[in-house]
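Listing S7. Sequence submitted for prediction.
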Amino acid sequence: MTSSVKSRLRAAAAAAATAALGCTALAAVPTPAGAAGEPIAVQYRSGASGATADQSEPWLKVRNTGSGSVRLSDVRIRYYFKGDAVGEVYRFACSWAVKGCANVTGTFGTLAKPTATADRYLEIGFTAGAGSLAPGADSGDLQLRFYRANWQPLTQSDDYSFGAGSTAYADWSKVTAQLGGATVWGTPPEGNDPTDPTDPTDPTDPGEDGPTLFDDFNYAGHTDPQIAAHGWSVRSNAGGPGVPGATWAPDKVTFATQSGNSVMNLETSTAGTGESTKQTEILTRSMKFRNGTYAARVKFDDAPKSGPDGDHLVQTFFTINDLKAPMADDYAEYDFEYLPNGGWGESGNILYTTSWETYRPDPWEAVNQHTESRQSYAGWHDLVVTIDDSAITYYIDGQLFGTHGAAYLPERGMSINFNQWLIDLAGQTSTTPRAYDQQVDYVLHVKDQVLTPAQVNARVAAFRTAGTTFQDTVPAG
C-alpha cells in the first residue's frame, strides 16, 4: 500500500488543536486563574446513567473560581474510561453547548499506565471563539457524548470518570482540568499525570544533531533530475487510494516561490468522472525512516481554486511501510489527513491523525489509534509527529494534538509521503472541471531525536540561514 487508503473505514474520536494566542507588549489579556494558585473547577453530571448504554454522555461545566479572567481556549478537560475492546474506535459529538458546539473540541487518547478502570481518555478543549470566563462565571452546559463507531453498547460501570448517580451538576474530581498545561483540578487514574512533561515551546537544543533529512523543495519542476537524486519519487503508477479510474499525474506536482521560500504544490482535479480525475503524490523511495521527529509545513485548502466545491478530498502528510501479509505485526503508518468537505461518513471539515499497528484488507480488520478535530484547517500549519520508545505524539502549530500508545510503535523503517486525492465523486456530482491545491513548504526528519515544535522551527531556520535547501544524512536501512 502506498498511502492511507485503509482510512476509508476510520471513525476516530474528536480532537482539536487550539491556536496559540499571542499578544504585543502592554496588551491587556485575560490572566489564567491558575497563575495565582486559584484552580478552576469542573462540574459533571451523566446524561446516560445506565451501566451499559448506546453512548456515554458526560455533561460538564467549567467554573472560574479564581480572581482573574480565564480563556476557555487555555482549558483542557479529561474524562477517563475503559475501552470496550482492543483497537475499538470511538466517535465524539457535542449535542448542545451554551458556548456553541462549534467552539467545543475533543480528542481520544491512550493512557501511558492503564488501570482496571481506565486505559483511554476523552480530552475536551475549546476554540478561541468560546471566549473567556469572568471570576465566578461558568461555561454553562456542555452536553457531550461519545460512542463506539459500530454502535454496539458500551459499558460505563467500569469507567473511572463515570458517576452512575450523578444526575445533577456537582464538582467532580474524577475528571481533570489543565490551564495553560498545568493541572489545576481533579485526580487522574493512578500513575497518569495529565500534564505533558515536555513543553512544546521549549527552545533548548536536545544535544548534537542526529542524522537528518531536510528538503526545502527547491526544484524547477516535476522532471527536475534533482528530485530523484534527492531520493523522491513523483508518483505516476496506477492504483489506490482514490476514485476508480483516476490517474496519478506527475505534471500536477509543481514548484514556485512564495514569501522568499520555495513551495511545492500538489494539484488534484476532476470533472466528475474517474477518467477525468488527476491525483498527486510524492514519496521517498527509501523506507529508512523510523523513530525520531517528522515535521512539515503544509497549506490545506477548504475550497477549489476553480470550479464548484464539495468534493470528498483528502490532503495528507504521512509515513508508511508495506503490509507484507494480512495483520503482519511489522506494518506501520502515521497520518495527518485533512478532509475539507468531509467523507468517510463525515459531513464537514475534519482532521485525522492516526497511528497504525496493522490491518487486514479482506475481511476488514484494523488495529490503530485515532485523534480527530472537526473544524476548518484552511491555511498554513506546522505539523509535527515524534516517535520514541514509548509513544507517538502529534502536534499542530506548536500545540499538542494527540498522543498514541506504545502498541503502535514502528518495528521497521518507513517512507515519507505527501498526497492529495479524492475518496469518491459523491460529494460533488457536477461535471464542471474543478481543481484543488495542497502546498508544502518543507519537510524535516531527525533520526532518533524527539524535538519540540520550537526546536523544529529552530532547525529549519538554521538551514535557511545557511542557505541549505537539501540535506540527507539519514543512513540507509
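Caption to Listing S7: primary sequence and predicted C-alpha cells for the chain studied. Helices lie at 225-229, 453-465. Residues 392 and 404 are 5 Å apart (CA to CA).
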